[in-house]
Amino acid sequence: MGGCFCIPRERSLTRGPGKETPSKDPTILSECIASSEYKEKCFLPQNMNPDLTLSFCVKSRSRRCVNGPLQEAARRRLWALENEDQEVRMLFKDLSARLVSIQSQRSQFLITFKTMEEIWKFSTYLNLGYVSVCLEHLLFDHKYWLNCILVEDTEIQVSVDDKHLETIYLGLLIQEGHFFCRALCSVTPPAEKEGECLTLCKNELISVKMAEAGSELEGVSLVTGQRGLVLVSALEPLPLPFHQWFLKNYPGSCGLSRKRDWTGSYQIGRGRCKATKSYEPEEKDELSFYQGESIEIIGFVIPGLRWFIGKSTSSGQVGFIPTRNIDPDSYSPMSRNFAFLSDEERCSLLALGSDKQTECCSFLHTLARTDITSVYRLNTFKSLQSSRIRYTSVLLPRVATLGGGAQGCSTLPVLTASQPEGFKEVRPGRAWEEHQAVGSRQSSSSEDSSPEEELLSATSDSYHLPEPDDLDDPELLMDLSTGQEEEAENFTPILAFLDHEGYADHFKSLYDFSFSFLTSSFYSFSEEDEFVAYLEASRKWAKKSHMTWAHARLCFLLGRLSVRKVKLSQARVYFEEAIHILNGAFEDLSLVAALYINLAAIYLKQRLRHKGSTLLEKAGALLACLPDRESSAKHELDVVAYVLRQGIVVGSSPLEARACFLAIRLLLSLGRHEEVLPFAERLQLLSGHPPASEAVASVLSFLYDKKYLPHLAVASVQQHGIQSAQGMSLPIWQVHLVLQNTTKLLGIPSPGWGEVSALACPMLRQALAACEELADRSTQRALCLILSKVYLQHRSPDGAIRYLSQALVLGQLLGEQESFESSLCLAWAYLLASQAKKALDVLEPLLCSLKETESLTQRGVVYNLLGLALQGEGRVNRAAKSYLRALNRAQEVGDVRNQAVAMANLGHLSLKSWPQNPARNYLLQTVRLYCELQASKETDMELVQVFLWLAQVLVSGHQLTHGLLCYEMALLFGLRHRHLKSQLQATKSLCHFYSSVSPNPEACITYHEHWLALAQQLRDREMEGRLLESLGQLYRNLNTARSLRRSLTCIKESLRIFIDLGERDKAAEAWLGAGRLHYLMQEDELVELYLQAAIQTALKSEEPMLALKLYEEAGDVFFNGTRHRHHAIEYYRAGAVPLARRLKAVRTELRIFNKLTELQISLEGFEKALEFATLAARLSTVTGDRRQELVAFHRLATVYYSLHMYEMAEDCYLKTLSLCPPWLQSPKEALYYAKVYYRLGRLTFCQLKCLLCCPGWSSVVQSGLTTTSNSGAQVILQCQPPE
């Protein structure tokens, strides 16, 4: 699993006959499997599911348990993403997986893979911890990232089924058809199949291709290169996807010995070791020693290599020593950070972005810069600008490409008396740099060169060496083009210089990667061919003179130049000659290493297996075991790949890690960054512990940034940050990288305003801590200002105040200007936090300190902020004076913008404190001033606020047309600059205007729709839910078929959002609203479903009052309708009444019984109506409300009347009359009592036959009707037939 999961060794990959019966219904993979039997032989289980479940849980580090509230918040966020999963799909795409579905209730994702590379990358990210960090980016909002304590204490733990992941990996591996296996045991084919089948050693690597169904596969041995058939039962696929990828992309042979296996320790060692048995050398470069002899290790011993370099403590000789002949417990083991053999090697990776440190610090200072010392601030504490201190516009630059290109030129030291005359030190000049940039690069032909080899060429045969103008030609260097004879004395200087026994510092330029000796030691030749001829002539004289070291070094230089021209066979001859001449001498270890490694690279290129087996292993030892060795050839990568293959063969993690580091360093120096990433990820998995992982993490973050993978770039720095919290510093360039990638990650709409994502806060805080340790006060203050900016952006001024207070202390230490700027920022933050008193405490001393200065602008800035603070304190007159002083200072210096701001603040003060005319005049003058300015985003956003204030003044003065125009102008400016917050303010005002001031349902809906779109862009789910609810109501009020359908859509969308947010009361009301709409649309089959869902949601919320309300409203749906009115009884009687009695909600119970009575009367269920009316009458006497009692008894009388129980009806009517107030309040009230008297008269005259009472009731009714002037009622009374 990307360097993390393995196929269990004990599991049998082939099933013998009789051990397991195949399934009768096997699953067939059409790509590669033809039968059930073949599937078993191809290592695959049956019924493979291609999908993988990824589960997560949010845990607290300190408590070591699940953080319940955060887990629930993450689950709700996931629920919200189920239907809008584009963001999740993009995240998993970056993680090399494909999203199938989201299962929010289980906190799970279902993902799948299509290629082996996808599963390799994903498993790597999973084990590096990047998947969990990326899920934090997805599931948590800015409130989480601004809470530093919560961020440090929280981690997301992800889990997958490892065995199922292995199964998917094997399936994809076989599906691709070409993969690599390891031999489980030695295999010798029978005599009749010799030549057809492969002979294998245990652990030998084989490249396998899928063939037709059968028990044998076609394979190629990576040791011998032979092809043949091999039994499936003898093979095991390599379990690590990285190994599969590497062997496929870096093909070559392996150096596994067939005679004996390596038996060394599994730890890198150094110091001294003890020989376990004697050894007689087979080659001259090997060291002889006796059993028990103490051997000093030169460099290190690395497990997996057959050789290391050692020195006999008895004889002092140096040579190669077989690892199997020493005691692994006798030397000092190295720490777990086995990738780097020295701190210099580790720092070479950490230095990847160090050359940009100054540039990144400069960027941080630019991002922190503010114009608060020169530009007045507008009073917008409750509007669009309330969340920020305005910072100057900053675009995030990219970190330039690092680590590539040729290395700097090494130079020879200034000649001393011991150096031969004629070899002067050369200052590296512009000519060399220009040549390195634009020099000709044409490849020459060679009989031994292939197209691949030609790509190694770094120059052409017509290479021109620079000829410095400020240096004279060396007197003792001979120019062969003059035709002079080759005399020995002409070569004496170079031979004397090169024949030094052992290594000297001035030889460094001979072995380095950049061929710096061409410009330092040998600079008098204008043509490379001329120089080669001179070296060849020198070689001949060195050979004649038996000058061993000069001869060897000249052969080495000639070999390097031949490789440069891709003349590999010629270079091989030179290198072999040099090694032969040295005859096992190791005094110049740099020369020996360069010779062996260059020759090994040529053997690998030319595939000379028969010649290079031992030399390859020794070259690998020199490459891997010597620390701080500089590369001398581009094609050294082939030797590194050979060493890595050997590490894979023997299963040595230290050797594999070492080879990965060498590959990273070499590829970075070659500028081949796109090839570095797999090796860096593998090395990070193998290292796993700081400080090694810290160095590799810096490389990974740099590479992810170059590949435009912002999630991974930020995640790698965050992982590094966790280590930094344990005592390691976070480099400034990585903070810059985080700021850059979080902007990409969240798609901030206005990057030109220098907005910073809250996601960057943890890294900014760590960088701040690092600057505190380094006492870098300037950068420390810049980071404080940036952090305060983030808090203000997200309307958290308290957090901003904390960092601005720290910035003020640092500013006082740095200088007056920094102190003044920090004081203003702090005062502004206090104002945004509605702490005007504390702002005054900062500003008043600051104003006193400015009295002796001559800066009118600075005094004006302080006066303006002082006015804002005084206005916040309610000291209106003093605030007005401060604004006027600020206005005067701006007029004195001719600053129109500051004049406009001061005038606008005066207008706002007048709007709140004095009559409307002054405010209107001030604001109109402000608009005129802004019109004089050149349009910019900042001034236009200030003008938006002025238009809103002016519209408020005009609307309150009943100038509706002009006020509407101002609102619309404000919205237009917001749309022009795509500024969401200003659009939001203007849209809110327009919605209020069309709903309350000048009602217009269609226009109100239009602006509510725009408001909804803004909420979606701002990702404010709570606002979006409320707006959908309002839109649903607006559409329902239109009461058309189309508007009802749109209303239903809005209500259902709001329902989903309220569920996501966990607002059960809102969700319950949305369920009810949807049910009501289905009733209006006559979709009766869905009505009960939604109403029951509403009630169940309310009951689960454990809010009985909400449940009571919803029971009643659910009944009202039918009660107020025209269909199925009887359904209301169940909700009233079975649901609402018991809850009302339990909650002792007497008035609600009374209201429900009244509704039940009315409903039964309309349904002519008078017996039931009598029951409910009686209960209502009893309850009404308890409430103490005479009007409620009157209504209850009137309904009871109506029921009795309907049941022909006239005497009871008369009693109830008389009760209602007894509740009549002594003075009638309105004609309607008089009409009601007239009707009651009329009803009593009819009861007496017609039903009760009481002629004595009838004239009295009639006269009362007549007097009542005369009072109400109701002629219709009078006619009715007069037309009654006498009895």
TrEMBL record:
Location of the SH3 domain: 176-240, 268-331
PROSITE patterns the record matches: SH3
Keywords linked to the UniProt accession: SH3 domain
Entry-linked Pfam families: SH3_1
Span list, region Disordered: 434-468
Transmembrane segments: none
Superkingdom of origin organism: Eukaryota
GO annotation (BP), single: regulation of ERBB signaling pathway
The keyword ATP-binding is assigned to this record: no
Protein name: SH3 domain-containing protein
InterPro entries for the chain: SH3-like_dom_sf (IPR036028), SH3_domain (IPR001452), SH3TC1/SH3TC2 (IPR042772), TPR-like_helical_dom_sf (IPR011990), TPR_rpt (IPR019734)
